[in-house]
Amino acid sequence: MTQSQPPARAGRAENHSKLQSSGPYGVQSMRYGFYLPTRGSTATRDGVLKLAREGERLGLHSAMIADHVVFPVESKSDYPYTLDRKHPGGGDALDALSILGVVAGATEKLRLVTSVLVLPYRNPVLTAKMVATLDVLSGGRVTLGVGVGWLKEEFEALGSPDFERRGAVSDEWIAIFKQLWTQSPASFKGEFYSYNDIRAEPFPLQKPHPPIWIGGHSRPALRRTARYGDGWHPVGAIAASPLPPQEMRAHLATLKQMTEAEGRDFGKLVISYKAPLYDTAVPDRDGTRRSFSGTPDDIAGDIRAFAAIGVHELIFDFRSESTAQSIERLQRFAADVMPLVG
Known about the structure:
Helix content is 35%, strand content 18%. By secondary structure, it is of the alpha/beta class. It has a single domain, classed as Luciferase-like domain (TIM Barrel, Alpha-Beta Barrel).
C-alpha cells in the first residue's frame, strides 16, 4: 500500500521527434495539431472521423478535443476568450473522452489530446481509469491537457467541488491521477478526496504516465505547470488573448524561473500553443497583423517566430461551417504553409 498527499513534482515530456525548435530532447521539428468538432452540425461521426483521418494522412501530429458537459441557459460567468466575456454557441457538446475513444479506433499515429479537460467536473478515480484505458487501447497516444474551468454554473449543475477552490481541487486530482497510474495498491488522503488500499490497474501504456499539459497563461496556471506539468498549453492569436511572440517570451522566462525554483528541468517541458488560423490578414488591437493571419508567407514567418522562442507544437483551428470546408482549410495549410516552413 502506498499513501500519498502532495502531487508528484517529477516531470516528463513527450519525445517530439520542418522547422527546428529547441525541445525537451534537444533540437526538434515543429509539430502541428488541429481541433476536432465537438459542437454544431459538423460534430457527427463522419465529421469527426473525416477530419481526424485527413489530418493524420497529411502528417499532422495531434488532434484536440474541447470539454463541456452542460451549458446554463443564462450565465453570469465571464468567458476569458472573447472581448465581451460571453461564450459563443448553444448548448450542445459531445463528450470529450468519448470522442477520443472513437478517434483512437480510427487512426494509428495521431496524438489524442484533451484541450482542455476541466478537472473538477469529474470523479478523479473514474477519470484516471478512463484516461488509462484510452492510453492502453490507443497504443499510448493520449496527452491529457487540463484546466481548472471558468463556468461556475456548469460546476453547480455537475455537483463539482466549490468553484472558488477549483485550483486546489485540480492540483489534488493531478496527484490522484499520477498515483493511480503508477502505484498499486494505493491510498490517498486529501482535502477533497480520499481512498484506502485500492487497485486501479491496468496502468497507462506510456511511462511513467500520459503527459499532462496545463492550459492557460495566468500566474496560477504557470505555477501549476512548473510544479506538476509535463507541458504548457496556452491560447493565443485571438482578440481577447493575442499572446504574440514577445509576450510569450516573457511568460516563458517566468515559467523557466518557476520551474527551476521547483527543482525541475524547464528543458523537459513541452510548449504547445493553440490558435485560430485566419484566411486573411486580421489587425490586432495595437494595429499590427495578428499572428497566423494573412498570406502563407506571413503565417510561415509567424511559425518561425514562435519556434525561435521555444514553442514545440502549434495547434490550429480549421473548423468551419461544414466538414468539407474544414478539410479544405486543413489541406490548404498542409499544401501552402507547411512546405514554406521546411
